[in-house]
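debug: dumping io for the single-chain case to check the tokenizer round-trip. Nothing else runs in this session.
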Amino acid sequence: MSFGENVVLKDANFFVEQGETAVIMGRSGAGKSVSLKLLLGFLEPDAGRIIVAGDDVTGRSEEQFSAIRRRVTMVFQSGALFDSLTVAENVAFPLLSRGDHADPEKTDARVRELLGMLEVTEFADRLPADLSTGTKRAVAIARALAENPEAILYDEPTTMVDPLMATHISALIVKLKETVRKTSIIVTHDTHLAKKLADRVIFLHESRVAFFGTWAELENSNDPFLRNFLAEDELIPALDLTA
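debug: decoded output
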């Protein structure tokens, strides 16, 4: 995937098994968020293939990707909530926009369930403008879960929120991993969150997948770049590159 002469991804191969949580890491501009957008058809790759549940979805139409996005939902970094709708209405939106017109009572029950699960019930009647960034993220996660998707993609869920809310969002995602066992792909700079969640780690560097494996394998890697990246958060000792 390139933007003009800027090659963002090249020979970037990885997979995520059903029920796994994969974490995509790397420096800013490494192609992490671009990877998520490619998976959901918001961008089209210059070459290569994207496989979802055994089907090659590369080059599908927007209408076809709309169906895929009911099975694989995304929590955007901005939250992407509808400004004119309340929190409850935002969470209900995917259900109310379905072609089969979900039963209102079932919809209300599902919304209450999700708001409770994400611990944002008290904000049900508020508009997004009245919410903190972290609360918007929690509401966005609730909305992503509304149609019971098979997989969820998270784009930097703990970025640009205060440390207390970042801890809260992290705890919510860990809770979802333990309770609903959705296939998940999480783009994050937060190495502590990654260590808690990752069944597999995809580390992007210089347009390629520099590492693909478990967190334990990542910590045991002797690759100087990977070790020094993790050492910035004091998760493992850095390598002395001057020796």
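debug: round-trip ok. The first strand starts at residue 2 and ends at 3.
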